[in-house]
Amino acid sequence: MDISLLFKIAGIGIVVTVFYHVLSKLGREEQAMFVSIAGIVIVLFIIINEVSSLYETIQTIFGIG
Length: 65
Description:
The protein has one domain. Helix content is 88%, strand content 0%. It is built from two helices and no strands. It starts with a helix and ends with a helix. The mean pLDDT is 94.
């Protein structure tokens, strides 16, 4: 795992938080919720990609599959 992964996730979190607060102040609660859900989905895709890479490495090391 690289430290850049943590920076990516933190950056996405900061951007989503800013957009959420701006949209909430403008009275656009529904769009703010969609932004937060989109941020969660993006982070989940990043994490799933890393877990997949870890699984492939474990398969290679132990000769599974």
